[in-house]
Design brief:
Layout: E1 4-6, H1 7-16, H2 23-33, E2 43-45, H3 46-97
Antiparallel strand pairs: 1-2
Length: about 120
């Protein structure tokens, strides 16, 4: 009350918004908030809570609107790079193995028993 919120009021507010946190998550979030008003006293000014939640929400919205395209491009780039590396590795392995592979007999007798 009185323009400030304590951790239990904060928990109840989150739960009323259907946001249920584990105790450890709540403590971590509260530790982030408590002190943003200049003092770490177990009470956070209501305005500080609202401003922090709005800033977090705005950041999440900005990331959500630009992320899918960036994520898809990054994944496609990464996938192409992986394919390129695999092809290059396979080519190197093929080249290493080439001298060991049996070469055709220039006289037409390529089977191991001397031809037909």
């Amino acid at each position: 009350g009185g323009g400030s919120v304590d951790v239990e009021e904060f928990r109840l507010g989150l739960e009323s918004a259907q946001c249920f946190l584990k105790e450890s998550e709540l403590e971590l979030l509260w530790a982030e908030l408590d002190g943003d008003d200049g003092e770490s006293d177990g009470q956070v000014d209501y305005e500080v809570v609202v401003a922090k939640l709005q800033a977090t929400n705005e950041e999440a919205l900005q990331n959500a609107t630009k992320k899918p395209r960036e994520v898809i491009q990054a994944q496609a780039s990464s996938s192409l790079a992986n394919v390129g590396r695999k092809v290059a590795r396979a080519e190197r392995e093929r080249q290493k193995a080439a001298p060991l592979m049996r070469r055709p007999d220039p006289f037409g007798q390529d089977d191991q028993f001397g031809g037909v």
